[in-house]
Amino acid sequence: MKSYSQICALFLILVFCTCCKGQNKTYLPKENIKSNDIVISPGPKLIARNLLQDRKGNIWIAAFDGIFRYDGKSIINITSKVSSARFFSVLEDRRGKLWFGSVGSGIYCYDGKSFKNFTTKQGLAGNEVTCIYEDKTGNIWFGTDGGVSRYDGKSFRNFKMNVGFQGLPDNNDVNSIIEDKTGKFWFGTGGNAYVYDGKTFTVFTHDSKPFANVRSIIEDKKGNIWLGGSDGLWRYSGGTFTNFTENFVGYVYEDKKGNIWTSSESAHDKSWTLSHDKTPTLSRDKGWTLSRYDEKSLSDKKPTVTEIKPEKGMICGILQVSDGSIWFAASDGVYRYDGSNITRRP
To answer: pLDDT, tens digit, for every residue of 290-341?
Structure first.
């Protein structure tokens, strides 16, 4: 069978550099990679990193063995004939296009028929893309291992956090991007958290200390900022900081009711786990926990927390789908939690 994994068109690259605060701008070629083969799949077998439900109800899975689409009946690996890259992130933009971030192969844009691949050759800040975000004006932001790239549909503009806390060089691995209700941008990096007002990047601190290795940032429905990373789970509300756990937090998510969900390291070395058949098992491995912080108790000194421990493995992205259940990406695939049971999906 003829392979579709090779890119047959030549790049035509026109580079424009600016001197404004280390930003650069590159115009992109229009390049299509077609994929006409449909590969029915049992689902991801390697690490699943992130999840998305599109406007049609399909669930998309970014995993280290491809991008998978699940329509409720069957699952398809749509990138098996396009790329052997490990995929990390996924976004549906306002026009219905899908964006997939990979580890080492840049980004892929999918319009339902064909793919466009963008890498550092076209101006992307880095080829390891761990997060993708669409802002209020429709620009697409990519968090990479070399800084942040903003794409306006025609060109990239790149940003680097060259100076970190107390003037020290920062780690430009960008893990999370959001735009808050005031129009400011928040970036979680392997070094610090930053706030960007359109001109200046400022290290975000609490008690004169930066947040270390920030993996996830969200803004909840009330406008509070939540940060998860090596310093645990924090909420920033009107100048007030609240710490909910000191355990490492890899992902933060708000459901439709305002409950906050996290994937984090377990608090205890010994704990009871819930296996797929609901059999309680004593675990001696620290492992990972899926936690739900009840919205009604978030203002209490001791909020109500429900901890769900899968049988094994790391927990990555979290998603509430249209039926209200919680899906989470894990080191060995994807799981569904319906409030009582954990089942492997799809």
So the answer is: 999 999 999 998 999 999 988 778 999 999 999 999 999 999 999 999 999 9
Give the Cα separation of 192 and 190 in Å (integer): 6
Where does residue 146 rank: exposed (0-12), middle (13-18), buried (19+ CB within 10 A)?
middle
Structural tokens at position 331: 């080191």
Which of these ranges, 125-129, 180-184, 217-221, 310-314, has the smallest mean pLDDT?
A: 310-314
pTM value is: 0.84
At 167, is the secondary structure helix, strand, or coil? helix
Per-residue b or e along 17-49, where b marks 16 or more CB atoms closer than 10 Å to that residue's CB: eeeeeebbbbebeebebebeeeeebebbeebbb
∠106-109-115 over CA atoms, to 5°? Answer: 100
**E-strand stretches of 220-304:** 225-229, 232-237, 240-245, 249-254, 260-265, 271-274, 280-283, 288-293
- In sequence order, the β-bridge partners of residue 147 are 144
Number of residues written out for the chain: 346
The closest of 267, 248, 172, 262 to 218, measured between CA atoms, is 262
Tell me the mean pLDDT in the region 54-58: 97
Task: Say whether the peptide bond before residue 346 is cis (omega within 30 degrees of 0).
Answer: yes
- SS3 of 155, please? strand
Question: Which pLDDT band, with edges at 50, 70 and 90, does 169 fall under?
Answer: low
Instruction: Give the other-Cβ count within 10 Å of 139's Cβ.
Output: 15
| Tokens read off for 30 | 């229009």
**Statement: residue 37 has pLDDT above 80:** no
